[in-house]
């Protein structure tokens, strides 16, 4: 039992660390190029919003400490990236509107988290679990729906991947993997596994698309050019 507790906290901590730094490569990329073309603001907003029910769920169910911290960090870094997608081209909204959006979101998020945690934790302690199930489903839906906007970006560019940093996707997937292991070694909570499993699936879907820190674009039309380069490389060797 002690070994399981140690494993739960160690794996949860590793997962949390991954999610602490997951969006840093994307944030750095956005800052350097001062452009967020191909990075849909709606995706980042939905991911930022999903952090609220995530936090409510793990605080109210008294999850492992790393799992309680992770949603806050996830929301924080998603919020920064969301702000970048609004501030930099192609959207580039005014600072005044940006401040209004961010301030409103923060106030609403804090109010929801505090209110629901204080209300749901005693209910969960008494064995009333259905409200937490609803919160978990909401978090999962927000995270999953956030995957839809990138596909519209791909459709607009006929399959070209623009603006997405591969380092972000890789670290994000690792965070989901270690967090799921943490839950498995601890008290197995099916909804927790579903939440993190959905996030890992989301990252895997995105990471299957090639990308780089700048504006790497890979299309079906490039196939002949790629094959030609491979042929030249082989002949050179």
From TrEMBL:
InterPro entries named among the record's database cross-references: LAAT-1, PQ-loop_rpt
Bilayer-spanning residue ranges: 40-60, 72-89, 98-120, 132-152, 164-185
Name of this chain's protein: PQ-loop-domain-containing protein
Localization per Swiss-Prot or TrEMBL: Membrane
Biased amino acid composition, Basic and acidic residues: 212-224
Topology of the protein relative to the lipid bilayer: Multi-pass membrane protein
UniProt KW keywords: Membrane, Transmembrane, Transmembrane helix
Segments of this protein annotated with the region Disordered: 203-224
Domain of life, per lineage: Eukaryota
One Gene Ontology term, aspect cellular component: membrane
Signal sequence coordinates: none
């Amino acid at each position: 039992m002690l070994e399981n507790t140690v494993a739960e906290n160690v794996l949860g901590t590793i997962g949390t660390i991954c999610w602490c730094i997951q969006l840093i490569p994307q944030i750095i990329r956005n800052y350097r190029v001062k452009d967020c073309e191909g990075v849909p603001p709606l995706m980042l907003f939905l991911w930022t919003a999903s952090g609220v029910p995530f936090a409510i769920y793990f605080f109210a169910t008294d999850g492992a400490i790393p799992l309680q911290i992770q949603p806050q960090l996830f929301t924080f870094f998603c919020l920064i990236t969301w702000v970048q997608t609004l501030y930099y081209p192609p959207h580039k909204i005014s600072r005044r509107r940006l401040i209004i959006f961010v301030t409103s979101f923060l106030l609403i998020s804090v109010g929801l988290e505090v209110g629901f945690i204080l209300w749901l934790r005693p209910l969960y302690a008494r064995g009333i679990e259905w409200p937490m199930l609803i919160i978990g489903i909401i978090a999962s839906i927000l995270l999953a729906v956030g995957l839809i906007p990138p596909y519209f970006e791909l459709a607009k560019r006929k399959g070209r991947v623009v603006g997405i940093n591969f380092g972000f996707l890789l670290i994000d997937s690792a965070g989901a993997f270690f967090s799921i292991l943490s839950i498995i070694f601890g008290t197995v909570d099916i909804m927790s596994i579903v939440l993190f499993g959905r996030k890992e699936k989301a990252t895997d879907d995105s990471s299957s698309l090639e990308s780089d820190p700048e504006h790497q674009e890979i299309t079906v039309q490039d196939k002949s050019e790629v094959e030609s380069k491979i042929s030249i490389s082989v002949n050179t060797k």
